[in-house]
Every structure is written in C-alpha cells, then in structure tokens.
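Backbone geometry tokens:
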Amino acid sequence: MSDIIQLLPDHVANQIAAGEVVQRPASIVKELLENAIDAGADKIELIVREAGKNLIQVVDNGSGMSETDARMAFERHATSKIRTTDDIFKISTKGFRGEALASIAAVSQVELKTKQKDNAVGTNIYIEGGGLQFQEPAQTTEGSNFSVKNLFYNVPARRKFLKNNNVEFRHIIDEFQRVALAHEGIEFSLFHDDDPVFRLRKGSEMQRIVDIFGRKLQPLLIPVKEDLGWIKLHGFAAKPEGAKKVRGEQFLFVNGRFFKSPYLNKAVQEAFEGLLLPGYLPSFFLFLELDPEKIDVNIHPQKTEVKFEDEHLIFALLRSTIKKALGIYNVAPSLDFDRDPAMDKVFQPSRGNSDHFKMPEISVDRNYNPFLEEKTVKHAEIQNLAEMYHQNISAEPSKINLFEDEDFDEDLMRLPNGYWLFNKGEKTLMLDLGRMHRLTVSEKNKGKKRSNASHSLLFSLEYHMNEIEKNKFRSIKKFLPDLGFDIKIAHENVLRIDAVPEGLKETQVMKFIENLFEILEYRTEDEFMNFYENQWSKLQSKSRFDFIYKTDAEQVIRDFSALGFPEFLPNGKRCFYEMPLEDLKNKF
C-alpha cells in the first residue's frame, strides 16, 4: 500500500494558517496597528476602502525596517519579540506570534514601503498570494507604510462569507477603538472611502474616551483607581445614567492590551448591583497593570483572551474598587471605605502556600433552633401572593367576562410589584400588562401609513454625537424628513433639532434619537423603519406600573385576547407567567 501522508506546499500551509489569524478585514487592522505601536510610532494613520475588502493601509512614523527585516517579516514563524521559550511567558509587546504577516500575504496583495531613520533610501516590497513579486530600493518617509489589497482574492469561498460593508466596517471600528483607547499618547486617524471618521489627538485617558465616544459621556465618568503593589487598576466607570442595553462600551485592558473576560465583566456588573435597570449594562474603561509573568496572552489566536494566575483576586479587586468609587461620588450609598490593613493580605497573589492568608473566623450560635423560626416560602410568586392578600384582604376582586364565547367570570387583582393576577379556569396567570400593552399598540400601528406631520420646537435642541453616531446619522438622514424630523449637523459633531413628529414630546426627543443610534447598524431601509416603528410603539405604550385601575387592566386584557393571548413578544420576552393552582397547593 502506498504512503498517503505528505507535506503541504508552503502556499497552502500559509492559507490554512491565515484562517486562524485573518478572519475578516478587522483582523488585519488589529495586527498592523499593533505592529506600528511596537515599532515606537507616535502617529498612526489607518485608511480603508470598501470596509477593508479592497484596501487596508496603515502608515506610521515608527522605527521602520531594514531591507533584510522587511523580507524576513513575511516568513512564517518570524518575529523580533521572542528568542526563547521563556520569552513567551513575559510578553510586553503586542504582535509576537510570528505568522501574522505571512498569513495576511497568503490571502491578499501586500505592498510594504519602509525606511529606517538613518538610511538614505528605504525598501519597497510586493507580495501576492504569498509569493514575492519584487523587492527594490525606494524613496519613502521614515517608518512603515503597509497596503493590503483585495483581501481573499485568491480564496473566493472565504471572501463570499464576509458580511456587508456596514458590518465589516463596524468590526474595524471596534478594533481601532480598542487599540486607540489603550494608547492615548499616540495620535490616531481613521479614513473610510476618503471620509475622515476619527482624528484622535494625544492626551489623557479621559480625553481619549471623550474623543471617541462623545462629550456627553464626560460628565458621567467616575475615576477608578487602586494600587496594591503587585497589581494596579485605573480607568473610569460611567454612572448608571450611562448604562445601555447593548454592548459596546465595556473595555478591559491588561498591560495596554484589550481582552475579553465574561468573568471579570461580571465583577463590574456586581459592583453596580441595585443601581441599574434590568437588561442594562454599565459602561467602563478599566486598565490593569501587573507583571507579564502573571498572565498568559498566548491562549487565543486573536490574543483577545487572557489567562490570569490570580483571577479570583482580580475579580474581588474590580468589584470592591468600583463600589468604592460609586460611594465616593455619591452614586451608591456611602460606606466606611477605610480598609483594614489586615485585609491587604487577601489581595496578595498566591505563592503556593497558605501562610499569606488568614482564614476568616466563623461565629456559630449553638442555641439557634431553626424550628422556632417561622417557615419561609422561597418562591417569589408565593411571596407576591402573600403581600397581595395582606394589602387587599378587604378588596373585592372585580368579576369580568373577558371572552364573549365563554360564559364564566374571572378574577383580576393587582400585586404591589405592578404585575396582575388573573385566574383563568384551573390556572393563575401573572400578567405583565406593560408588555401586553406594547404588543397591542404595535399591532394597531402595523400597516398604518404614518403621517409626516411635525411640530416646530420653540427652542432648538442640540445632540452631541460621537464619530460612530455621526456616520450612522449620515446613513439615515435621508429617511428623517418624511418621518417629520428637521435635523441638521450644525457644526462638527452637533445635531441641531428644529422639528419633530407630532406625538413626540420635547422631553422624549433626546432619548428617542439616542435609541435610533443605539442599534449597531442598519443593513436596509426596511430594517431602519422596523426599528423606528418599534421605538415609536415603545413611546406610546405604558409600563406595568402605569396600570393601577382595574378598568384599564380589563381593556388591555380584552385587546390582548383579541390577538390570541400570545405568551411572548417578538423579541422573546414573556408577557405572562402561568402558575397551575395544583402546583401552588403543593408549595404548602
């Protein structure tokens, strides 16, 4: 039987490796920006066309490369950052994996112009599909100029799976923001199809955050700072008013590198416990600094995941420090935050023995008898029932006939938490009348032709946009006049609002505009209009706390019944919860 195992040709191996490193245009943006930072640049320009599909160009004023290094940089496993295995565990630079440029060149057409400071001429190198086409001396400025053209031109199956330009450009912005936030001492620019998107000056961390996310965020930012010697934490968290329902302003960095960690995000969320409405996420920009040997950044191809030696201690640090900041700035109830020096040992990194930790003492009341205590019912539904009966013991529940084709009466009663109990046969339903009302309003509006009537505001309103919102406004502004808006860009990133649709209160305008910008991107006009109608329905609908009269509740239930009494909203949220009476009996 003949042998079947063989070595892959270099160009095939490089294309396979590219699948790990180059997932989309944003992957290339990240690698090239990080290389420019490692080269010591203090001015970096990113230029993209067609969301990076046709061109990604990064120009920097860093140290540049010699003629030999320019060629070697495109070889697999070539890097200037690692010499021994031990170096992997104390990485302090950004790009170090050694196959990034080789992978990029394998699936695109790459041109590099570079020159070192003291050299009279530089080098121009061109590689296509992983194959060197030419390398020659060239007149160029100090630093490096990378141009990556026609991504996946030689792998059409990969190019076919790229998303539309709006989606791909959004990913590029994400990577650009992550790099720019961590390096406020570098001047960054971003151009898309010749339009300037960001021009970020050198400055402080606060200035960089405001330059990216807009001036309206500045008064909401609270400084967060702690230094425990072995680890430092600094940055900003936004007050609860800055929380959003969508992700996008949650940033964690370690040693200047952005990373993702649902576990540490949870620590921040817990610090805001009791301060945010359900479904809202706090905004934060937090920077950790610790010994590179205490972390491993080499566990993910895109280097977005980090393994910490003492992750549980970092969790406690984040939660306690942010709680402290919220208390100091009167966002949360103030506590005595004078730390007991003995507690510092809790935040010392593990050394392989338990001598650094003092186990907490536990005080036990040996005379405690649980059977002398009144039995506690754990289920929330039963607790609500108990509260309801105490508060409504003398109230006679209304008897209504909600279904004309059925001849029976139903009980209806309001709970203190805004929900309503509705007895239907052998079942008790807990109703969220707010969601039920929203669905009925949405159905009534469906198919109606919206009037474009508007009313002028007595005084114009100004909405301060960040750069992302500014670009989003350009994509939707053509739809706004037909909806009744008179909105223009007054200067730089400020919208001037002179008229709004009838039915939109002046106090609702700013939040309504913010919601229109909240969605990540609109692929089509229909997608925008659907989202707009959804937001409009939310304005017209009431929350469950608005329903305090039984006559109003009865009407909502009648309207909702006409829709077939659906259990869920289109977004998957539940309108009611069913509690079989037999199950309730078994709780006692």
